[in-house]
Design brief:
This is Tic22 family protein. Strand 8 and strand 9 form a beta hairpin. This protein is α+β, with helices and mostly antiparallel strands. Helix 2 packs antiparallel against helix 5. It is built from 9 helices and 11 strands.
């Protein structure tokens, strides 16, 4: 996937100390295009369980579920290790029938950019029997999100989406930007890992004691990118988790295959 090549550029974001900048940049106010939204989402790898033909493992949905006629749903893991653990569990399951056992041997984990999932959903939203995606957040990040929300006074029992962590100068102030690369490009990082957000917060706190971490969710991020015309959205960068960044480092940078539309049929 060509987007895998672009993933490498994100590594510099958290590979060294963050450089803080509080100087605002005046940008023209214009809504982001669908391609710009996809490009931002492409920085994050997600993981599908697929068979030897590259088709995602999915299950059929009864008519009327999720407001659509028929169709199927497949799991989208935010952690490659958790996806691999699921395959291992299937292979080690006892009392399997021969067909299930043969299928489990052929399963693999396939990484795709989050932007490809978003594009697929956009293109198929009015189609019957389409493939839906059930996101599976990392348990540790869910716990981190709930801890932060409860610490802020919110009474909440569960978090129903993929948590995203943003560092603010204060609860009523803007997001903390950082500078990237030799050109010191100013960006606003949205982290998929509480650990990364905490690292930036630790640097900000001595100068801005009221700084904190805001918990949002990936659905809210996408909706904001789609609906708002605020200039700062041009600066937003989604930062993959440490686990995903480590995986990205293992990928070839020049020979990554191009992304394809995901199939809508189950294997």
């Amino acid at each position: 996937m060509k987007s895998l090549v672009r993933w490498g550029a994100t590594l510099g974001l958290v590979g060294s100390t963050f450089f803080l900048s509080v100087v605002g940049i005046s940008l023209p106010v214009q809504a982001l295009s669908e391609q710009q939204i996809k490009d931002k989402l492409d920085s994050v790898p997600v993981y599908l369980i697929t068979n030897d033909k590259g088709l995602p493992l999915s299950r059929n949905l009864p008519d009327g579920q999720n407001g659509q006629k028929g169709g199927s749903v497949t799991g989208v893991y935010m952690s490659r290790q958790e996806a691999l653990a699921f395959i291992k569990e299937l292979r080690n399951a006892k009392n399997k029938d021969p067909k299930l056992e043969d299928m489990a041997k052929k399963l693999q984990v396939t990484a795709v950019p989050l932007g490809v999932i978003y594009q697929q959903l956009q293109q198929s939203k009015n189609q019957p029997n389409r493939l839906l995606f059930a996101f599976k957040p990392v348990d540790q990040e869910l716990k981190g999100a709930l801890d932060l929300l409860r610490a802020s006074g919110q009474k909440i029992d569960q978090f129903k989406s993929v948590p995203v962590f943003a560092v603010r100068f204060a609860p009523d102030k803007g997001y903390v930007p950082i500078q990237l690369g030799a050109e010191k490009q100013q960006t606003i990082p949205l982290f998929l890992s509480k650990q990364d957000a905490q690292g930036l917060l630790n640097q900000v706190k001595p100068k801005f004691p009221t700084a904190d971490i805001q918990v949002i969710d990936v659905d809210g991020v996408i909706k904001t990118l789609k609906d708002k015309n605020d200039s700062w959205l041009n600066q937003v960068v989604l930062v993959p988790s440490p686990e995903s960044r480590e995986y990205i480092r293992t990928l070839p940078k020049d020979n990554a295959p191009k992304p394809k539309s995901l199939p809508s049929k189950q294997p």
